[in-house]
Design a protein that fits this description.
Layout (H helix, E strand, L loop, with lengths): L1 E6 L4 H13 L3 E4 L10 H13 L5 E6 L3 H7 L7 E3 L3 H11 L3 E5 L5 H13 L6 H17 L4
Parallel strand pairs: 1-2, 1-3, 3-5, 4-5
The structure holds 5-O-phosphono-beta-D-ribofuranose.
5-O-phosphono-beta-D-ribofuranose binds next to loops.
Length: 152
């Protein structure tokens, strides 16, 4: 799967682990930084991933900051992005199956590397189930996006 990944300084170390592990598992990973732990601003990196998703150049994104909150909020500002912060595997796959989540937000100060990898794999392994009630709800999200005119 084509996956775009980025992190701020707080997520840098976990992002390095995720990129290496996901590549080793056969995913086509685009690493959009940060490339060191110099203090930085999470919107810059979350939006880099969201732009790729919004343009259809990757199927999924993973964004990492300290808590996961900031990167989730920033990624959700761009059209076509449904980002969710997940620190458990259930939310990571269910968010895709029901809600068509296409960006996973992780908090590197919240979860350890092993759990983060399991969460990422649960996310990447899941597919939207297309059930009518889930589709109806996602279409309402898209209508909200169109009405309030988000643009990247
Ligand atoms: O390292 P500092 O700047 O204290 O905290 C940065 C983190 O705090 C939150 O905004 C984000 O989670 C970000 O990664």
């Amino acid at each position: 799967m084509r996956v775009a990944v980025a992190a701020d300084h707080a997520g840098f170390s976990l992002k390095q682990v995720l990129v290496a592990a996901l590549r080793a598992r056969g995913h086509d990973v685009q690493d959009l930084g940060a490339f060191d732990a110099t203090p930085s601003d999470y919107p810059d990196f979350a939006v880099a991933v969201a732009r790729v998703l919004s343009a259809g150049a990757a199927e999924r994104g993973i964004v990492v900051c300290g808590s996961g909150v900031g990167v989730a909020a920033a990624a959700n500002k761009l059209p076509g992005v449904i980002a969710g912060m997940c620190h458990d595997t259930y939310s990571a796959h269910q968010g895709v199956e029901h809600d068509q989540m296409n960006v996973l937000a992780l908090g590197a100060r919240v979860v350890g590397e092993a759990l983060a990898l399991e969460i990422a794999e649960a996310f990447l392994g899941a597919r939207f189930d297309g059930v009518a009630r889930h589709l109806r709800r996602v279409e309402k999200l898209r209508a909200l996006e169109a009405r309030w005119g988000r643009d990247g």
